[in-house]
Amino acid sequence: MKIVCVCPTRGIILTETQMALDRELASNRQIPIVLYTYDMPLPVSRNYLIETALKLEWDSILLLDDDVIMPEGALKELIDLDVDVAVMDYPLRTLKDGKKQGTAVHDKDGSLVWAGLGATLVRRKVFEKLPQPWFIFTNHKISRDNEGRIGFFAGQQQENNTFSGGEDVQFFLNCRKEGFSLKTTKSIAKHCYMEHIVSPVANSRYQQQHKIVKRDVIDEEMI
Q: Which residues of 25-49 are buried (b: 16+ CB within 10 A; e: fewer)?
């Protein structure tokens, strides 16, 4: 298996992130082919990196965020899952009780609905089959039916409603529609929240990177 890595950065990548990537590629006998961006907002940077990577020869692509640190053995664990989209979860926020909340959301049957893209191994055929752009910003209202299954309704955020927005959500919903296999590893990665480091000195392009200005029109979806 030949793996390349893409990493959208904000002009900075954590030393630990880079060292962990170098270690994982070397331990799996991979030639270190890594594509970066440094001045593009999301989701443009992700789409650009995938479009560029598809001009190269590879079997799977590792999507890595600039502030996610993979633990030792992470890449092998992702490979060993043997699925179309293999995800290593990482903490997203700290809850009031002090527990860390990850990015992965599972349905009642245990299937992965979506997760963050910070440490994700994706087979080439996924990007060859999914329509472009692969990543777009959206907002989804999250609900569950009487049997506990998750449903998504596109719409703007309102008070007291649970919403999730981001290019990762729509990517995973499209993967589920196409029947691609999705799974998370048992191990989790470390998330260092680059926003806390970069924001004070960031340019305006980065400050707007995660802001949803206008959502794309998406039909009501139930999965």
A: beeeebeebebebeebbbbbbbbbb
Task: Please choose, from the candidates 94, 60, 100, the residue with its C-alpha nearest in 3D space to the C-alpha of residue 79.
Answer: 60
Confidence of residue 102 (pLDDT cuts 50, 70, 90): confident
Give residue 144's Cα distance to chain centre. 23
Rounded to whole angstroms, the Cα distance separating 207 from 135 reads: 19
Asked whether residue 144 is assigned to any structural domain, the reply reads no
The predicted-structure confidence for 28-74, as pLDDT tens digits, reads as follows 999 999 999 987 888 889 999 999 999 999 999 999 999 999 999 99
Confidence of residue 146 (pLDDT cuts 50, 70, 90): low
What's the mean pLDDT in 62-87? 97
Domain range holding 30?
3-136+167-222
For the chain, how far is it from start to end, CA to CA, in angstroms? 32
The four Cα atoms 181, 184, 189, 192 give a dihedral, to 10 degrees, of 70
CATH code for position 210: 3.90.550.40
